[in-house]
Amino acid sequence: MQAEPGCDAAERGNFMNQNERISLSNGEWKLMNLLWNQAPRTIMELTRLLEPETGWSKNAVITMLNRLEAKKAVYHEAGERAKQFYPLIEREEAALAETRGFLNRVYEGSLSLMVDAMASSKKLSRREIEELYEILKRAEEDVCD
C-alpha cells in the first residue's frame, strides 16, 4: 500500500479496530519492532539489521514486507533512492490484539484463569503482587456500574 503524497499517519487514521485483528508471525514481530523503534527504514536497512539474527536475505525481507502491506500493518513511500517503510499500526494496538487472541485461544477469554495460571506456576515477588494490585485498582476506578 503506497501512501498518498503528503498523507501522514494521523490522516490515515487507525486501521485496526476490535473486529479487525491483525495477527503477526514471530518474524513479522521482529520486522515491526525495527519499524516501531525507528521509521522510516529501507529494505536494505531492514535486511542488514535482520540478517545476523534471522539469516534472511533481501528477498525474504521483501516477501515479509509484502505480507505486512497486505495485512495493512506497514506502508511505503517512494524515497529518492529506495522505498521508505513505515508502520501503519501502533505497537500497543498489535500487542493488545495479540494478547486478546492468546487469551481467547488458551483461556477461553478468561483473564482471571490466565492470571491464576501464571501466579500458580511461579512464586510471585512482592513487587509483582503490588504491581498487580495497582493494575486492579486502576481498573476498578474505570468500572461503570
Question: What is this structure, in a nutshell?
Answer:
With 145 residues, this protein is mostly helical.
* Overall 3D shape: elongated
Overall helicity: 55-70%
Structural class: mainly alpha
Strand order of the largest sheet: 1-2
How far is it from the N-terminal to the C-terminal residue, by CA? 43 Å
Low-pLDDT residue spans? 1-19
Provide the fold topology:
Blueprint: H1 9-12, H2 26-37, H3 43-54, H4 58-70, E1 74-78, E2 83-87, H5 91-107, H6 111-121, H7 126-141
Antiparallel strand pairs: 1-2
List keywords for this structure.
145 residues, mainly alpha, 59% helix, 7 helices, disordered N terminus
Please, could you describe this protein's structure?
It contains seven helices and two strands, in the order ααααββααα. β1 and β2 form a beta hairpin. 59% of the residues lie in helices and 7% in strands. It has 145 residues and is mainly α. It has helices at residues 9-12, 26-37, 43-54, 58-70, 91-107, 111-121, 126-141, and strands spanning 74-78, 83-87. Mean pLDDT is 86; it is low at 1-19. It is elongated and about 55 Å long. Strands 1-2 form a two-stranded antiparallel sheet. It starts with 8 loop residues before the first helix and ends with a helix.
